[in-house]
Amino acid sequence: MSGVETAAVAADLHNVSTIGLDLGGTKLAAGLVRDGKVLRRLETPTPAHLGPLLDTIESMVGDLQGSEQLAIGLGVPGPVVNGETTFFSNLQGLNDSKIEQVLAQRLGRAVAFENDANLAALAESRHGSARGTQHSVYLTWSTGIGCGLILNGEIFSGRTGMAGEVGHTRMGFSGTMDGSGTLGTLEAQACGAALARDASFVYGQPTSVPAIFEKMAGGDERATDLIRNAAAYLGRFLHNLQLLLDPEVVVLGGGLMAQASLLLPMIETERRRTRALHDFTPLRLSTLGPDAGIVGAAEFACQGERQVRGR
């Protein structure tokens, strides 16, 4: 196929709707997407077990596509190697489920799988806050902590698919344990689940992340210390990330960034505690917000279709 024909195929595919699915630790979102825009969106709490999850995905896909069979992309909260999921630290009921195989059987066609943070990074690179750059990082701060890397305009997932699994970065030799069973990781110290865990211990009763921010707004010093500690861990990590990759931009997303006005000054204070750096990578908030994963999954599925048709 000639270059002109390939470009025509790409243009045509961006005028076709695609389904993007975003499987998170607490919610499952799906959308009908065309050229980076979500035309219709569905969301539900994430079922804890495979059977109900497959039922829910099948229902969502059927609702979104109508009588057509559209390309489908799915972002999952864990590494993906050669199109196969390997480990879910925050959805352990799905470990070893072979979800990519059983879902394809259920839907009657292949589903393009990729790590959710990678797909959000792809979406922000093509349609959001990192548009126009070649080297960007997307960091999601929510129930867990994930990261997607875009190098030379494409997803970089490394040799085994583990590139970007920064939640498991060791920030110390001891400390609390994350979902993988590793001590002292970034996720174990600073993710939303860790914040709720620590606050529940401090207050002696179950305490949610929104409740912590409410207490902070009311002047509670313990809540302020909990949040400042988590933000400091993130700031230290961003300092290390710049020294490793030196990207053009870092895009921040995820549920906790709804409190960006409070968190960014704390993150920046810790990130800038260094004499090694003088020109800091710009931090930008996600333009696509909670739709980044959906848009990225749809873009990834569209990209796969383009490669098939462009042969």
From TrEMBL:
The name this protein goes by in its record: ROK family protein
Coiled coil keyword on record: no
CDD domains cross-referenced by the UniProt entry: ASKHA_NBD_ROK_TtHK-like (cd24065)
Organism, as annotated: Deinococcus psychrotolerans
InterPro entries in the record: ATPase_NBD, ROK
Keyword annotations: Plasmid
A Pfam family it matches: ROK
Signal peptide positions on this chain: none
